[in-house]
Amino acid sequence: MEFQAEIKYVQDTIWLLISGTFVMWMAAGFKMLEVGLVLSNSGFNCFRNTR
Predict the structure, then answer these.
(1) pLDDT digits over 8-29, tens only?
(2) d(CA 28, CA 39)
(3) What are phi and psi of 38, to 5 degrees?
(4) What would the DSSP string read from start to end of 4-48?
């Protein structure tokens, strides 16, 4: 029973890391989409103003 709990903990940890990676890639993708939708001369300001 203890071994199954340890396996579950490892699976949850791996899933958390994978999900976090997806969230970071989605944030980068949305930022690229936002920059693509604005004028080229204000693209830098779009990155600079985001914190």
Answers:
(1) 999 999 999 999 999 999 988 8
(2) 19
(3) -105, 170
(4) HHHHHHHHHHHHHHHHHHHHHHHHHHHHHHHHHHS-GGGHHHHHH
